[in-house]
Amino acid sequence: MKNFVVVLLASAAYLAVAVPMQEEPLQRGEYPRYMDIPDDEGNLHKVDLEAEPDYDLLDKVNRNNANQYFLFTRRNARASQTLVMNNANSITNSNFNANNPTVVIVHGWLSTRNTEPNPTIRNAFLNKADVNIISVDWSYLSRSDYTTAVRGVPGVGRAVGQFLTFLNQATGAAFSNMHLAGFSLGAHVVGNAGRELGGRVARITGLDPAGPLWNTNSNRLRPGDGVYVEAIHTDGSTSGLGIGSAIARTDFFPNGGNSQPGCSTSLCNHNRAWELFAATVTYNHLVGTQCNNMAQVTANTCRGGRLNMGNDNLRKTGSGIYRLNTARRYPY
């Protein structure tokens, strides 16, 4: 018990160190200044990519870790249990099992833990295996304007990484048994979380990582953020919501990565990333062919090796860019 208290005090001291907020300008890259970006219900929001972020809100976020963490297991697949940073009782009194794999899911802009992709990915994993699912809710910031949310992503990610450090110290749950999956802005959140942990988590999956304000952003998802880092690109056109270029260790471009069969909107293309991922957790059936360059991805002329996209394999390995073609409907 004494050693446990010492560990918690050390963790609290570590978290008390203020991390300065990065002030480098946000670059629009190839995107227009004004974009219509949909929320998870398809409602369009006009976004000014050069708008001044809400620095008062960002300062509050930087000083106060406001992320919330909600646990689902097979014992409580429908009703979550709340895990609280630096509160060991919230962990020990929950259904968290340090011997099981832990999957962390992070939502995107204007979303919450209750919106997609959380329910679909959670159910896919729990139907497949006995795992700990932790849904991260950062809606206190994700529901702000887009430029403010983008600016706050690194701090949100660092806080997730610090929470996982606390989880490891409190329970012994190994980083080598953790898989972080984030959608859109959430993809960059899990990248920053993995970076906070020194790239020690077993897997990171970026689901159509957000594109606007991220093409030249040094805080985006990177290949070294985890032992294996994968990105699935589904809406990467110049007017799309995702990044259209390779940014991870392994990058998959279903149907070329810009538009998806059966989709007529950018939101549909964007959401297809988590839909495909959830399907692969269940069936592990979508296999990419390695490409030498993006021209081959676009032309569908890739002839390299084969690698399964997505799935729940914590020991997955591979690198490079891959193209695959899918069907219009589940399981694709």
From TrEMBL:
Q: Is Signal included in the keywords of this UniProt record?
A: yes
Q: Which GO terms describe its molecular function?
A: lipase activity; serine hydrolase activity
Taken from the record, one Pfam family name reads Lipase
Has the keyword Secreted been applied to this entry? yes
Look up the signal peptide feature and give its range.
1-18
Which residues are in the Lipase domain?
58-312
Its primary localisation, in coarse terms, equals secreted
Gene Ontology biological process terms from the UniProt entry: lipid catabolic process
Alphabetic keyword roster: Secreted, Signal
Q: Where in the cell is it found?
A: Secreted
- Xref: InterPro entries: AB_hydrolase_fold (IPR029058), Lipase (IPR013818), Lipase_N (IPR033906), TAG_lipase (IPR000734)
Q: Which GO terms describe its cellular component?
A: extracellular space
Among Gene3D superfamilies, the record links this protein to:
alpha/beta hydrolase (3.40.50.1820)
By sequence similarity, the record places it as follows: Belongs to the AB hydrolase superfamily. Lipase family.
Q: What is this protein called?
A: Lipase domain-containing protein
Its source organism is Bombyx mori (Silk moth)
